[in-house]
Design goal:
This is Dihydroxy-acid dehydratase family protein. This protein has 595 residues and is of the alpha/beta class. The protein has 22 helices and 14 strands. The structure holds FE2/S2 (inorganic) cluster and magnesium ion (MG).
Length: 595
């Protein structure tokens, strides 16, 4: 397939004109056009040769993190009209992280597929991708990358900072704290509800550096949004202003034929990995970024996260790795300040093209300098070597660990042996899925103590279709009451980006497809070595071979038609959790109005 097709066809006419203005084919043109007139568009407008711009609307009452986009779309449309385009807003399959069962990760793919069909099959010359809640960003970027018409990201922005009893209360992160207080009988049901709700004081997505703010920052680092877009809080006036500017810009992008494949290059992905480390991004970002790269045709692997990301220092002081929330991050300069500082340290490809039409280096050159508190200078970070560790061993081929959330207490408890400072051995406690974890974590017969490692399996893309955010398991209540608030956890599922749990997760291949975790038994000894980046079951090769020979995989129970389809086609988290057959469809823009 070629890499240089575009929104314009061979004669230089806009793609939409093949539908709406083809004098050689009046029958079809009339048929295409008449229904778009029925709500008030005029034939003159639609046949004027002005770019037709889609607004991919991810907000709805079911998707409250993105709901604000319903209002923002008005400003996007103002910008599109002002620049001479015609806006057509259309709905995208909702993805709500907190509301969807069994997991919103299943819907990333459904939403992606839906967007591909819309962009491929309707007369749009360019598209504004409204993003926000976790999976909306990768779904929209991968869809636009696949079809390859000019596209620009508009995030809805984080919620205002939450407060509870005078302290900052960050989305998700406060939940983990409130659960510990509830488990320790320090608060009751009502206070638990109030405490958790306090973190959501306004429209917008999670205000912590969870998956949403991480992925929107990454979209900006990829060059796919206007500079500064990611961090502006949803209710701020600048959010409406950047919606307007984004609408204006996409029209010119169509005229310049600036497509996603021209922006999302290998260099852009390397920039994104470096920024992800510096902001303390969610552990969901590696699979999402790899999936976008695969759909755009850039070769990106988990090892690239180790190679380009691990030794980057943590510059952004936001929860869960730090203290602040989205408002402070925005006021301190957001992604442009982080990138400007990383440029000074020689960590960013400054020439990477962006949606502004200018290279990344120019976009961020006038950003404020770090304030030394919310955004730290490169030489005075919150932590060195703060990127993901990419792990291997005899239980899985790959898994990731977010080093920026390994607390000093955790280091003291597990990594304090002077002879072997980066390793520890623990007794495995194995749960088959979150249901078993919840029903058995307080079971005294498991005899869980501070020398245990909690494992969870059956939670990868195939096992728990989509892959569940469950690896950050809380210790049993009796340990919490003794002040042991976290144990090492390992699993083939994911964990919330808002969690500060020192987990090893996204283990691939997962247990459901016969990965090594399927062989593990409660009581096994497992060695974790962070320096060698290995997790190993301490058992002989013969023992492991015997367990493999006896292994019988549990039967998968599908609950919906989509789950069955998805499980048959999906790959592992290490490869982005894509539908494997889908990645070959690249640059498929349809430039003719004829079927
Ligand atoms: Fe939607 Fe966090 S739950 S952004
Ligand atoms: Mg999440």
């Amino acid at each position: 397939m070629t890499s240089e097709t575009s929104a314009k066809n061979a004669s230089g006419r806009l793609r939409s004109q093949a539908w709406f203005d083809d004098p050689s084919n009046p029958d079809m043109t009339a048929l295409y056009i008449e229904r778009y007139l029925n709500y008030g568009l005029t034939r003159q407008e639609i046949q004027s040769g002005r770019p037709i711009i889609g607004i991919a609307q991810t907000g709805s009452d079911l998707a409250p993190c993105n709901r604000h986009h319903i209002e923002l779309a008005t400003r996007v449309k103002d910008g599109i009209r002002e620049a001479g385009g015609i806006p057509l807003e259309f709905p995208v399959h909702p993805i709500q992280e907190t509301g969807k069962r069994p997991t919103a990760a299943l819907d990333r793919t459904l939403s992606y597929l839906g967007l591909v069909e819309v962009l491929y099959g309707y007369p749009l010359d360019g598209v504004v991708l409204t993003t926000g809640c976790d999976k909306t960003t990768p779904a929209m970027l991968a869809g636009a990358a696949t079809v390859n018409i000019p596209a620009i990201v508009l995030s809805g922005g984080p919620m205002l900072d939450g407060h509870y009893k005078g302290k900052l209360a960050g989305s998700g992160t406060v939940v983990w704290e409130a659960r510990r207080l509830l488990a320790a009988d320090k608060i009751g049901y009502d206070e638990f509800m109030d405490m958790v709700s306090s973190s959501a004081p306004s429209v917008g997505h999670c205000n912590t550096m969870g998956t949403a703010l991480s992925m929107n920052s990454i979209a900006e680092a990829l060059g796919m949004s206007l500079p500064g877009c990611a961090a502006i809080p949803g209710p701020y006036r600048e959010r409406g202003q950047i919606a307007y500017l984004t609408g204006k810009r996409i029209v010119d992008m169509v005229r310049e034929d600036l497509t996603p494949r021209k922006v999302m290059t290998r260099e852009a992905f390397e920039n994104a990995i470096v920024v992800a480390s510096a902001i303390g991004a969610s552990t969901n970002t590696p699979p999402h970024l790899i999936s976008i790269a695969r759909h755009v045709g850039v070769d990106l692997t988990l090892e690239d996260w180790q190679k380009f990301g691990h030794d980057v220092p943590l510059l952004v002081n936001c929860q869960p790795a730090g203290f602040y929330l989205g408002e402070a991050f925005h006021r301190a300069g957001g992604v442009p300040t982080v990138m400007k500082e990383l440029i000074k340290a020689g960590r960013i490809h400054t020439g990477a093209p962006t949606v502004t039409g200018r290279p990344m280096g120019e976009n961020v050159e006038r950003a404020p300098d770090p304030d030394d508190d919310v955004i730290r200078p490169y030489g005075k970070p919150l932590m060195n070597d703060a990127g993901m560790l990419v792990m291997g061993g005899n239980l899985f081929d790959s898994a990731v660990m977010k080093t920026s959330v390994i607390s000093p207490e955790f280091r003291k408890q597990y990594l304090s042996n002077p002879d072997d400072p980066d390793a520890f051995v623990g007794r495995a406690i194995v749960f088959d899925g979150p249901e078993e974890y919840h029903s058995r974590i307080n079971d005294p017969s498991l005899d869980i103590d501070e020398n245990c490692i909690l494992f969870i399996r059956g939670c990868g893309t195939v096992g728990y279709p989509g892959s569940a955010e469950v690896v950050n398991m809380q210790p049993p209540d009796h340990l919490i009451k003794r002040g042991i608030v976290s144990l090492p956890t390992i699993g083939d599922g994911r964990q919330s980006g808002t969690s500060a749990s020192p987990s090893i997760l996204n283990a691939s291949p997962e247990a459901a497809v016969g990965g090594g975790l399927a062989l593990l038994k409660t009581g096994d000894k497992v060695r974790v070595d962070l320096r060698k980046r290995r997790v190993d079951l301490l058992a002989s090769d013969e023992e492991i071979a015997a367990r493999r020979a006896a292994l019988k995989l549990p039967e998968l129970k599908h609950q919906t038609p989509w789950q069955e389809l998805y499980r048959g086609l999906v790959g592992q988290l290490s490869d982005g959790g894509c539908l494997e057959m889908a990645v070959k469809y690249q640059d498929i823009v349809h430039t003719s109005g004829m079927p």
